[in-house]
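Review session, final week

We close the course with one last complete record, chosen because it touches almost every idea we covered. It is non-specific serine/threonine protein kinase, a protein from Planosporangium flavigriseum with 595 residues. Go through it on your own first, then we will talk.
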Amino acid sequence: MTANGARLLDLVCGPAGPLPETYQRYRLVAHLGSGGQADVYRAVRLCGGVSSAPLTVKVFRVDPRRPLVDELRSWDKGDAALMDLNNRGVQAICRRADGFYGPPPHRPGELPDAGDAVPYQVYDYLHGINLREYVSNRAGLAAGARRLNAVAALDTLAGVLRALHHPQEPGATPVLHMDVKPSNVMVLATGEVKLIDFTGARYWRPEEITQIAYTPESGGPEAFGGTAQVGPAYDVHGFGAVAYFLVTGEYPREPGRQSQAGEEAPPAWSVLRRHPVLEQVPALRDHLHHILADRPGDRPSTLELPAWTDRLAELVRRCGIPDSGVDWGEPETARAVGRAKPRPPVAGTETGAFQRIEKLERELVELRAALGAPDDLATPAAVANGAAVPARTRVASEHRFEALDGPTGEQQRVSAVRPGPQAAASSAAAAPVPVSPAAPPGSAPAGPAQIRGRASVPPPKHVDPTEAALDQGSGQWPGGSERPREERGMLKRGWEMSGIGAFFAFICWGIWAASARGRLAGPLLAFCLVLLVAAGVFAVSRLVGRVILVNRLGRVRRSAKGAHAITGAFLVIAGIAYLQQTPWVMQVYRWVSGT
């Protein structure tokens, strides 16, 4: 849905596969945010009319200023690193569920726009908000609110960096996240944190790091020294930026400024901020500036981060700086948490109302597919205008109003980094939406199928295998969509096999015609007839392939190699037949074979 809640987003996407439904594998139901490299959506996976639990789909945008192959290779490097980390079992990071190339998102039932495929990445959907929003919203300052434990969050982040920089698996290559910052740390309702956005992640190898993601307010200056200067200390600087933000509520470096008249030109990178609170506490200031040093060698190593965090927590508790809404006390041990009673969610991350919204979105997706209702009739805006909406759709819309108008909500912001100022990503704000008035007296009462918050799965439709093929009269693909058009250029794909067969037949015909010692008019006419028959064999092969592969099996043909292979085999057989009619060739064959 849009930020103002006026319309439920309804787009589909998927990989370019042989089955037509793969183009609509994922249905995008809400826009979460946009960054410099991608748009992020909440989505569900569709299979057999059943929608999955929420997922996060990231649709990358191709930069027209860079070669396409460089853009795709850059995405593939980050995707490979994240998939490897998931396979290693690294905890507290986003889990990659899928990755593919496909057409841009499009409306259900419509063919995607022609053009280059774009990269997609699919992750688990994390219920919560990022750390930047959590601290900026001051949610932890409310009376009685459960706060995020900053020490536990930093310890978790330090453990993630240790797993990335010092993998325990034999032969595993270290990985650099390259963009650790508050907005890439998700705060979950349980109080846990997870590191997200591995778009810029790279294996720590010189040939892998060909570009560097740099955010001025949190990035290390070594980004301006070239790829050879970037190493684990770059992520350590990002870790320090997160710690600085937890303490002060601000980023550690200035966003950048132009030199004034008479001033010395500032460095290319952003300089450290002089925070008034830290200037009053030199010990705390020096401790934070240590991990944010301009020179990578002056910072603590990855393995020293737990001890550095313990010292930071001690200084914060002792100095009594202004409260930023996080807890700097000792984190609870796993054993204590296991014995404790269930705790309320961390303030600002309550997901009960938002989970009801997500459930409603899934129900509307299923209802649209089952009822075939136009999109405009299933939107809250249409309901507000008094449009005729089926009863089940109207009940779902009322439920949506209740969820959006609840006491708590959730905002999630997902951003991608590009060189330059940090891109602002809009949060999906939940706002009340007018609903239709109550049904007039005397109208049919709602039956059991209209229970609020529950949608029945549409019963499976029986499909006769003989009717699953393309309808020749309507030209429709199974499922109601148009059959993908075959490119004319695909007929040339595989022509080498037909060409080799024709060349072999021509040589054999020449040998036979030369041995005949007569006029060439008759043999030439016979050879033309052979070529004409070969063309007929090619056409019949294509027709049979269309009936079996396209109409019956629903496959999409991308070449004519099969028909060319059959045609080439026919021409080879014709050539052998010419040789069999040449006396001296047969004599040589009998002499060689001894028959």
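Two points worth writing down before the exam:
The chain has 15 helices and 14 strands.
Residues 1-7, 334-340, 373-484 have pLDDT under 50 and may be disordered.
Good luck, everyone.
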